[in-house]
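Page 37, top half.
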Amino acid sequence: MSSTSSNPFGVRGTLRTSAGEAVIYRLPELARQKLTDLDRLPFSIRVLLENALRHAGRGVVSESHVQQLAGWTPDGGSRAEIPFMPARVVLQDFTGVPCVVDLAAMRDAMARMHGDPTRINPVVPCDLVIDHSVQVDFYGSERAYRMNVDLELDRNRERYQLLKFAQHAFGNFRVVPPGTGIVHQVNLEYLAPVVQLRQQSGELTAYPDTLVGTDSHTTMINGLGVVGWGVGGIEAEAVMLGQPYFMLIPDVVGMKLTGALPLGTTATDLVLAVTQMLRRKGVVDKFVEFYGPGLSTLALADRATIANMSPEYGATMGFFPVDAETIRYLERTGRDPALVQLVDGYCKAQGLFRTDTTPDPLFTSSLELDLGTIEPATAGPRRPQDLVPLRDLKRNFLVNLPGLMSASVPEARRSLAESTYSRWVGEGGANVTLGDQGAERGGTAALAAPDDAPPVVTGLLEGDAITLQDGSVVIAAITSCTNTSNPSVMIGAGLVAKKAVERGLMTKPWVKSSLAPGSRVVTDYLNGSGLTHYLDALRFQTVGYGCTTCIGNSGPLPDPVAQLIDEHSLVTCAVLSGNRNFEARVHPQVRANYLMSPMLVVAFALAGRVDIDLTREPLGSDTDGRPVFLRDLWPTPEELRDTMAAALKPEMFRTRYGSVFAGDETWQALPVPAGTRYSWDPASTYVQEPPFFRDLPPAPAPLSDIVGARCLAVLGDSVTTDHISPAGSIPKNGPAARYLLDHGVQQVDWNTFGSRRGNHEVMMRGTFGNVRISNALVPGKEGNWTLHFPSGETVSIYDAAMRYIAEGTPLLVLAGKEYGTGSSRDWAAKGAALLGVKAVLAESFERIHRSNLIGMGVLPLAYEPGQDRKALGLTGRETFTIRGIAAGLAPGGRVLITAADESGRSISFQAVARLNSQVELDYYRHGGILQRVLRQFLAA
């Protein structure tokens, strides 16, 4: 073994590239030294091993880190902590704006503490794609795109100026302007090289592309063979500033794919089945790696669709190794031939290239899926893991309808829904619940429509008669990176539209339909195939290039539709080709949301309702009065293949991405604030200096126990980051609305919570502000409400928190399973911290939110196995004291919680401190990760 400090294992070698000889750190040499069995290591672990090997001996990564990764075994035992050094960081604007605000505030803090502000600068290259701000205010016309974009720029001028400031004031920081595409698709089609070729330590070095991103669906890039996942913005900022990302060496669950998808199914159907299977398996905090002969039957866009939804099945990432399809995709998307050659040569030299003859790696555990068993499916109505076969959707909606109804539904209609539920279940219908098992098939294959169908209400919309009832589709959106990156389903949607138009069908007038392509290239190939015309004819005009409906930017429903929903408390539905359907995320007036392929989105827009079995019932009638079935509109494999072959050209990608950072004239004309420090405008309602670094002492105070805490909220299972920190519309009667009105902002200009993440005053008022959140302290109420103790008054959560802060009372949140599931939303932790929450006690946490809580100095605590709030008899009305923090908190250690109720009786129990490592303990001790980083910069 070499004794060279920067090459301790003697694995430094070279690889011939078009740019000359490049240094590589040879994984096969480790195998030759018998330090690892490379053929049996999961490919994802091989990438982590190369990362450690390349950085070993340079100050952060030790030889033991390399040895621990090289010795990875399926049984694992106690997994060690390693530092991971990603090659780059990817941001989107909703999460990127608070990152820039934090960096600007850190520069000011450095100046106040007599340090060098310019030390606060990205060390790792960062790309920010503006894709989350466009809303569907206008739709159904050829002018919709231009009007939405103009409104987007008008609403977000301050935010965009901040981002242009960052592009000029910070090094290693690029911005992709609005109107380009969705961050994950731009990453897939352009930003990701698969193999990096850069100067490192003074040498031209080739190494695997790796990244972290501030969007949980960063994992889409795993479909390209790139290791990367979503993190909170605060973690991403630390990585930007050159800090390692500390993580436990993961377990890796293998998912073996065999067979091939049947005719009539899509990658969307596959990913919904995979999501349900892996969520049942339990893969939180684990890597999932796909293997088996079925991989070779999947196009890369299909793999990216599966990888995209890693957050929905709970994994850190869903990884597909580099293989021949990866190389073909790089060629098809117009990558430089030199890059394609580099990827091919490097991955083969390093044992990172999969073929059908490659030995199967060893995995912590595995499961198998025969692709031939996949059938057309949807997921919903509230969670993406709740798979609903298309043939069972009608049954699913009717069985779930009573639980979807609001408290204001008339008793007669509720009784009708419950009797319908009883008959569908009692006569052998599916036993469908919203629990972990999702929608299970059972009983008869189909049942006749019940006689007591939901009552219909009528109205007029722009001269057209509209009829709404429970189950009516009011939003049909082809949206989100999940599917709009996949040409097969996008062209498939166009072919469905073409056949529908040719049969004389039209979308129902009450359906707000929209198309938000994932990149400009989608528009190019839809235009090139002649399919845009047919989508336009069905009112699926392009409304923007961004996440739109999937992030909650659905825009308002037409007034007549909105009024009928509110007046009659209707349970209306959204159908979308996205990845998220949590409560009130898509639209606050829509209570049921189903995920599905773009082709099915078009079909349900034609049908106008979800309580229909499209496998057996017609979705409409043609001009001759003949019934038209879904099978009549579905494209054949030959139609899909031929259309894709004719429409998709590498030149499209080269042209579109040739000037990707330039933007249009409006973007270019935006003035850029000068200087290296941001000039905060005290009158701004979009951007304010956050309080996290004000009066920060040079050293952290000693840890202390939490004494006399009160409960701010008692929450159930699967509370999402959308519940904790909504991204969509701002409720008109909430604290955030009062703040904006007090600052002269009228409702028409409120924009969304997501767009105002640069202003902590808005965001802390919106914390726990989802209109569907249920706090057990105030049963029967939905939304931002709690009890203030000891007064017993029912007030908004924000107002209660401000009272508690004034009284010097620390706060606690009680929760169930999967707390913080969903988006990598750092404001779900930032907002809680600003409200005075010191700890969250839950049955389990989703990975990113747990990290975010620690990154904001909030202690995540888990019940001991077998215990939960109800088993312990906790109501949330108690006064809590948490001891064991000051005496020496340890990763995975225990604290003692004493809860005293209003009668004076108390119960004591232990809880697990969900600090997984010494580094996380250090973050908590400093009051947050950025506080620790700032103190490190100051000390240096």
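Page 37, bottom half:
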Amino acid sequence: MRALFGGKSIVGFGTLIGGVLSIAQAQTASLVADIRTAPAGTSLISSNPRPGALQCGSHMYFVATDVVHGWELWRTDGTPAGTELAMDVWPGPSSGCDPYNGGPQMPNPLFAGPDGSVMFFAVIEGVNALWRIFPDGAIRQIYPASASDTTTFILNNQGVNPIPVLVGNTVYFAAITTAGTTSLGQALWASDGTAAGTRMVFDPPTANVNVINYLAAFQNRVFMSCNGVSGSGMELWSSDGTTVGTTLVKDLFTTPGQSSNPHSFAEWNGRLYFFATPASNGLTRLCRTDGTEAGTEVLSTTVAGNQAVPANEQTVATSDGVYFISNQNGAVYRWDGATLSFISTTAVANVNATTRVLTVLDDRLHFCSPSRLYRRELNGAITLLTTSTSVQVAGDLLPIPAGPLWPARLYFTAFVSGTGSEPWVSDGTPGGTIALKDVYPGTTSSFPRWIGSTGNKAVLAATDSSFPNGVGTEPWITDGTPNGTMLLKDIYSNIPSGYPTDFFDANGSLFFDALTNTQGTERHRLTSPTTVALCEETIAGSGNWSRDEPTVAGENVFSRVNVGGVTSIRVAPNGEGIGAELASVTGSTTYNGRLFSDGSLCFFQFRAAGATTDDYSVPWRSDGSSQGTFPLATTQLGQPSNVYGWAQFQGETYFLARYFTGSTDTSYALYATNGEIGSTRIIAGAGGGTPNTATLRMLAANGKLFYNAFAVGAQTQLWVYDGTGTTIGRVRPSATSVGSQLYCSSPAVLNDRVIWGADIDQTQDGELWITDGTEAGTTRIKDILTGLKGSFPAGMTAGPSVSGTRVYFAANDGSTGRELWVTDGTSSGTMLVKDIQPGIAGSFPQNFVAMGDRMYFLASDGVHGLEWWVTDGTEDGTHLVTDIYPGAATSAYLLTGSSYLPKVSGGKLYFAADAPGTGRELWMIDPAGGSCTADFNGDAVVDFFDYLDFVAAFAANDPVSDFNADTVVDFFDYLDFVVAFAAGC
């Protein structure tokens, strides 16, 4: 158990005895070398904070992206130190909070929730969900509450859904949903901020996506434009949050099938005002309602012969009337309860709509007409705030009301020749209307976008390039004064990075490619635990070269590189540099595919010089010499091409390649070769399945060759070849259809059996299966998520555990989210290792690497970002190695392709990681070394003897027990030691 004392976490004595005695080796992650430290130039890399930020508790929340995450949730307390990633909803580079590429789409990503909370839609693993931010900073998924929920929100087109509204303590929103596989179209939903209180209120009879729009709160109900009755069109409806209480208020356009399209709602003087088109003449009229049919009426909108039609769908109210701007003449109009009149003296025809903006601050109307900023007093007086004609107001107004310690301020964007579009502020007087800062110095514009406020300060997104590395579009903050306008934080920091990739081990040395200060991309070698040496300068100067993952065959390292537009295969003894070009293929072009080694020969796919089509990219072999490098021809079916997979089986090299009969392409086939001319033969033809390049994996087990590939019908299945004859079969041929295995994850071998994830009968029930290569020996191991919504296990990797070798994987049981699981191939031996991120959000374990007697993997516990974890297969033996990028930020560098995978060399795990101040550089985990503060007796093992020794020293007031090094031995030293001891380091 854990308890809090003085803000510190204490582990109960039972945990100390039962858990820590499992012996955790001292481990840490350390930076090997900061390879690239020179300035990166002035290229702009931006976090692009989205408008629509909201205050919750002591923080303002907004959506932005940084160097290692997609669009995610950020927060700020108004200080650089307090500006941080609030939650990486979808761990890694995927975007969880992009309102335009995930979740029911709406203009602003965040909206007000009950009891001072904030709510938002986010997407994770393709499922759109409703999330809630609590005033204490907690962030939780509200709905769906578990993976077993069959009703989910689905992706919509931008602008389909209106902005949600808060009525009392209930949020109303419109969303397109599905129930299982059935689309329900757009419906009205309500939520009180709990899973049980999130429900569909009203499902209109049509399945269209635009049957609800323009939500407004009025009289403790939600009013909306809704096509809720077949044939009525879009009319005025209201709801009390129940299905029976959702009713038509009035059909203003009574012609069947015709819509009045109510919109632009504003409450004033006990009525709800809006605009609608109630007749066939197409004229939009001002209307109002008291919530009843009898009290819903159409008002006059004709002034001096002009029909006043609202522009930009803006309607606002002050204590003395309802205001809008007409798109007919650019004039501002006011309804005083009885008549409509002009209030603007600057009516201009055909004004660009983007320059006409209304807002209310301090119960006063502020407006642009067309590009000058005005203020209207309640007595009717109008003041021009931007007195200079050179100041062109671009709109984008952000009002911040007066508070106990600050006056009201109106922030806006204006263009001035010589400075461009920059941030301005007004206190409501011409003298107090000033430019804040030329964020992008000179005539170039910073193009400010006002995204929200925190306390008395306004936050904006603005572009600047005056910093050494180029800031780009980042969040700025202002207190309304020029000196108080400054960069809040460079979220997407353009830190110079070495970007190490293509890790490989040659004869006991670690090699990798990295970007240097002055030489461009070059090959490097690790010569000591913290020393990196440049192997050679491939291209003089700072030029770069592209490359594929190298492979080692014998004492040679083969690489496929592109230098100056020329692609070639190169060979280097012992990996020193990229080596010499193999003359027989110099200047040729290649088709995609990786290099493969059988231990002595290197196999690869290449397209010979002079070829005109990728269909002639054929398999080659090389022993590192010019004469030993040649294409592998087949005497049976011409030349196989477009090779995808390689494997060693029965002493030969097998590969999947395109199958040709003459010049006819008949899908893919399995081939075998011993690397000599004339030895290449086809095993089976078109029935062998099409490779799924995203998940393809070939491996041998139980005297058979297995691989996962598409079948006829474009479904991925697990295929098997028994090593004899010319027949390849599916491991489950009796499934309901030939394309039955809708989902098939990469397989792993355990005890001569293959374990993989599959949805055998296309029921969406992806679960864990095991096979010996026969149908009779193919069974489902366990139904982890019962029902027809599978746990979809992925990342199967065999590795050590306290019970012997096991297969680790990630799966979702419906209650813990996607978490770390382990199996011994039996149902009873398949279990959750640890719920790393408690709740249904999941920690998303991935990139499993076995090293020594532990399995290492990336995961996010919700407090830290995606970082390296280690496990021995038990819950107590599963813990974070090191938080490389402190806090909720992620250090992990995740890109598809084997070039970016970590590498074990010399008993250490090497990988690329991001950290503050260094960017993306080379890091290492040493399971047997590194300092560990909880290893009190220094025997390189953290166990109960460390605890006993510390307690003895602490009781004796021995200075060696000053654990926190504050020169005082007190109870906080004991607390800090217990925390480190419980963590295993």
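Margin note: The CA atoms of residues 865 and 890 lie 4 Å apart.
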